[in-house]
Design brief:
The complex is a heterodimer.
Chain A (H helix, E strand, L loop, with lengths): L2 H7 L8 H27 L7 H27 L34 H11 L18 H21 L33 H16 L9 H4 L8 H10 L41 H25 L6 H19 L6 H5 L12 H16 L21
Helix pairs in contact in A: 1-2, 2-3, 2-4, 2-5, 3-6, 3-8, 4-8, 5-6, 9-10, 9-12
Chain B lengths: L2 E2 L2 H4 L3 E7 L3 H12 L4 E4 L9 H13 L23 E5 L2 E4 L4 E2 L34 H5 L9 H15 L5 H7 L18 H10 L3 E4 L4 E4 L2 E3 L54 H4 L6 E4 L2 E8 L5 E9 L7 E13 L3 H11 L17 E7 L14 E5 L14 E6 L4 H4 L3 H8 L17 H11 L2 E8 L8 E3 L15 E3 L4 H20 L3 E2 L16 E3 L8 E3 L34 E3 L14 H22 L4 H13 L1
Parallel strand pairs in B: 1-10, 2-3, 2-13, 3-10, 6-19, 13-23
Antiparallel strand pairs in B: 4-5, 7-8, 9-15, 11-12, 12-13, 14-17, 14-20, 15-16, 16-17, 18-19, 21-22
Helix pairs in contact in B: 2-14, 5-14, 11-12
The chains are: A mainly alpha, B alpha/beta.
Chain lengths: 393, 653
Amino acid sequence: MTTMYELAQQDYRQPKDVPELRRYLQAALEVEHLTIPVYLTGMYSIKPGTNAYAYGVIRSVLLEEMLHMTLAANLLTAVGGKADVSKFVRKYPARLPFADKRVPEVRLRHYSPEALVTFLDIERPQSFVPPNGQKPTGWTSIGQFYDAIRRGVTDLEQAAREQEPPSTIFTGVAGDQIGPRDFYNSGGEVFAVTGLKTALLAIEVISDQGEGAHDTIWDSDDKIFGEERQVAHYFRFNEIHKGRRYGRHDLPRTSPSGPLLDITWADAYPIDPMAKIEDYRDSPELKTQAVLFNKTYAKLIAVLEKTFHGRSDLMHHVVPLMVELRDASQRLYRNPHPNAAKAALGLHASPTFELTDLFLAEGRTYADELVARTEEPSQLRGGGVLPSWTRPH
Amino acid sequence: MTVNTTGSAVDGRHFDVIIVGSGWAGSLLARHLGRQNWRVLVLEAGNGGTDTWEGFQDTVRTFSAAVVKASNAAYRTSAAAPFPDVLDLRSTGPSSYTTSGHFEQTGPFPYAGDYLRALGGTGMHWFGAVPRMFPEDFATRTNFGYGADWPVTAMDLERHVREAELLIGTAGDGAEQHRLGVVADPEYQYPMEEIPPSYLDARFHRLLDGRSVTDKIAESAYTLQVYGLPQARNSTPNPAWDDGSGNPYRPRGAVGMPNFGERCVGNASCTPICPVQAKSHPLRLQQDFTDSVRLATRCVVSRVLPGRGGTVRGVEFREYGDPATPSSRPYTVEADIVVLAAHSIENAVLLLASGMANSSGNVGRHLMDHPTLLAWAEMPANDPVGAFRGPGHTSGLECFRTGQGRRKRAPFRIEISNWGWGWSTGAPLSSVARMLGLGGDANGEVRHGGYFGPKLRRDLGQQVNRQIQLQIAMEQHAERNNRVTIDPARYRDGMGNPRPIIHYDLDHRVKDGLYAAREVSKAIFKLLNATDHTNLGVQDDGSHPLGYFTHTPGGDLPPQDLGYRGPGHAAGTHIMGTRKSTSVVDADQRTHDHPNLYAVGCGSMPSIGTSNPTLTMAALALRSAERIHRDLAELHQPVTVATSHLAGKRAAE
């Protein structure tokens, strides 16, 4: 079972010791990952060349989720933990952990008003959730979950420093961190977490980008990364949902009242949000593509795990895998659903983002091979000694 | 943030500085002066909009849709602010050509470059190569007996070159550039690590480093060594870079879209456009403009207005709405200092049209480019090099750029192409067309033997993968008769502004250099075990390439077919010098004739060596910015006449 659901079943509280903090951070990694297939589906199902603004917005949020996932991994590494991708969500629909119980399960939906409602559910700021009379566990939002982590990190580090002799919870190997060398200009940049200050900054980035800083619609990238001022995820999605930009005087609780946007919901490939590989069993070509997509997805996850385990230099192998994933998704979306009844409803085939033990094992084998592999693809190898800069890192 | 204004809004107003042109030079100057709180107006003749995400994507789509991927292919033509295109030229015979479009050409050879009038100027379509000049390049007259010397040295410019490398955003290997001899400081660090050289570069390293080639024209043997090229392209931030602030270098992202702007990922379309904006462009600097800088696009300056006693008062310009028509309205705007930063050829046209800065008679003269010989070959079947991956070129051979060989022939830099036979034959599209059997033969008959399907795919994989090309750029030195003139009575654009008339020729030094380059290319192909496919003479369809000629440097050297392409590194139309009689601007790019008129850009350069000129031009612009700041500060001091008057009165009492 995934760590985040286990934690979410417990009563709300901050982590009480370092092993529990590691569990919280592993859960954070899982939470950030959970959203990525949802947003990818929303973005990839837009017909190419249309809805440029919405495409850019979903892409920007995706980049930030990837940044958050990487920062969560850095936090986990910094306190001596080790990221485990086998605990990631393996199929959709999936429940949103730590959320209010009234939030429905998250489905993979094509670009549509319904998809945007899902996106808004995921990113809804803590302060927007009305008090719920029947709170069995006390969890209300992901923002509240990060707040628990923040207080846990602060208190545990404080306690460690007060020990005799003073110690620290940041016992991870500094060189295992992913830094701006390997990840920048993508919703900010990744930075190494090496102590309390950087840990709190990482937590601030993760929660501000999602929910808005201090009850405004703005995130704090302009403050932290020197980037252009930008509205936080929830509000960016709300702009698409409402088809309007926020105006300069709009407040978190008002609807956007700025200029109209080029939103055309019809320019998307409608899909079955419950689709599974098995649905394609009578169409071998589609099944092959659906399996290929999921295997590529598993490879990507497995290589990412390697980067989290101190091989940040492998990050550049993730890029071509992301491109493969995009192309593989198009091969599915551009075909009608093989079930005649569903096709008659206008539905298309779609990537299912199913992870299995087998796919993950294959992905990890691939990642191990990358570690052993020289830099150039074999058809280019000319024999002879390459200069030093072509050696693997 | 860039604050936009319009021509009508600034009509009749007064600024501290007017800058004509929003390319690299204009943007650097405006950024610098704005930060010192001067009120700056930037007038850009071309269209704007690329500072928004949608506008930039529009240029990417325009490029994607273009049939010929020429250097202006990402931009629509403009009737209001027309600009030249490399496709304007057409060969009509072994030694003749015609031209249409923005330029008139009267020379025996065509000036084969272009530029762009748009927000960001030609800095939008440049390749992004930022090699430094060699110290010896600044004094070719003294060192080698030809060309014109600079009034400044490489050391004088060092500080500004470093600042330019930082502001442009440069990736390079400081230690390697030190070994090459263009960076004095052995510890020098570029802000970003070098763009990873291609696999093709690795093969050239392996097969060429340490090998010797004899240049019969220079009467000298050269030892080959492949060097990396500093580039204005995002790569990995250099952890060793340190500006004293303790902050790491943060690569600049895309303009108009937060969260975007990747490092170079090898889209292989640097010229004219990098779709992920890893290639630096001047709009990045415009994002830094303070509120005291105003920028207006679609404002074509037609004239510099004279003021009292040799000064200038401001400029006259026309603002248009629709680039498809020259329909426009005239306005004037005034300033304490006027800076022309409109490209060397447009600067010359503006000065000539205004009748200014020309007491030496040298405005428009000394037009230079880097005439570039292309040589192409095929690697053996067992040694594919993976062409068409990465930026256009990431390494070069530098040994022919310096030394006493310069006394015998023009020096040259050999760019090692990563894009196969792209520049020479239009590959890979031309490779596809050839295999398909498209196009006619010399008699206009349909070709036979074309094929498609798996065989086409296989053959493309095998052949395109082995294409190599050397792009050998000559230094062209300043010559009086290579010049830009105007003839308003005959040649005007739709708005009524004079069009450039260009007279361009190659002298024997350059022709000898091209001859030597061709010979060197043959020797290099031999060392690579490559099969030479270079054909600079008559083509399959019976035509001659543009820029074709035959030449022998004399002696027993046989004549051979030669040719050149124009990379459009136009320079030298208002060269700098210490003497008013022989130069147009001083070492700070201030015109000798008008104390508050500056002409900046490559036009000020008395020589351009074998380095792509943008970096040096940017350094000069930063140098001028300091001088302009001092001029303006001086202008704003209390008038000293009153002080001395009072002092005199006190003394009398």
